[in-house]
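Hello Y.,

Per our agreement to keep a running log of every chain we model this quarter, I'm adding this entry. I've kept the format consistent with earlier entries: sequence first, then predicted structure.
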Amino acid sequence: MASMNNVIRVFFFLTAICAASAAAAGGAAAGGAAAKPGGAAAKPGGAGQAFDITKLGAAGDGKTDCTQAVMAAWTSACGAVGGGTVLVPKGSFLVGPLDLKGPCKGEMTFQVDGTLLGSNDLSKYVASWIEIKSVDKFSITGSGTLDGQGTSVYKKDDGGKAWDPKASKPLPNSLVLFKVNSGSITGIKLLNSKFFHINLDTCKDILISGITITAPGDSLNTDGIHVGMSTGITIENTTIGTGDDCISVGAGSSVVVVDKVTCGPGQGISVGCLGRYKDEKDVTDVTVKDSVLRNTTFGLRIKSFEEAEAALTASRITFENIRMDLVANPIIIDQYYCPEGVACVPSKNAPTADTHVSIKDVTFRNITGTSSTPEAVSLLCSKKLPCSGVELIDVNVEYAGKNNKTMAVCNNAKGVAKGSIDALGCLLV
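Predicted structure for the entry above:
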């Protein structure tokens, strides 16, 4: 019996040792595993392993070219079974164009806690600065910044002359998501893009939340967020101030929600320009709500090209609960839009172009505040394809100046106005 008791004591002793060893190992893992060769470490709660760019040769001095280190981190994370995380830690990292391709072997996270600086050597760029392609379940997040360093090229090219969009190749977008499904962009800041800050192209189910986008108010083509050929897009709790549209929704897009966005400076929030290129698809189910526009050169706008190449329809578009603070041209539908520098015939001064873009079922509801121009509402629709189903419900935007009165202009626009100031009741029934 004593022998049996000794056996039992030994058994429990060994069990206790094994349990203690396992607990110690578990604690080490929870505290962060040691870096594996190539900069990989376990990332609790993240997308698989984390690949720190500084462990792959990146220097956060703002001068050393870190492009290859970021590319190496992406390649390793994308190839990791179960997915991975590219980690940009605190510091400033200079990088050229990043072509980050999928498909990947699992969920991907791009964690930006430092600052990525876009190279100003324009000869390096073929298209965009950071482009994510063909990835499912992708997120870019963090407390860091994507700084396109566009201020150095807004007015000058590499030769020191004024940048001419006709004579030069297009400047690079800062961040492009192409054929990305189930993704998110959260928390980060985007600063001074050379062209568009964010461009969503052929994407599905993307959330953009809690980000800040900033560029000078006079910077050309620095749209905050452009959505094209995409569906299921939500943009919320975001602040945007640029030299162009804060948000633009292009052809082929559907089920787009813009919620609690602050816009200004810039050119407001727009649907379009539509119809400029062949084979463009319809735009449907766009909602902009609970947002504020301040000191923008336009407010809420739908624009289609004066001589549209494509036949398409923009429909089921709602703008509601919007506050305007000294916004020029607060509400616009413009079927005679002609971008600056484009030769449109006939000219916009004689709008008789044969448009192919139909605009219908558009609601402006509970739009309040002040306009910096007398024309608070401009509905400039085609004689051939009049705008139909337009509703102005509780639209009370008034001219803030003293030398004129609030006005509305409606050409070939059919619909109803209710609860709006009398000056805006110009719709055809």
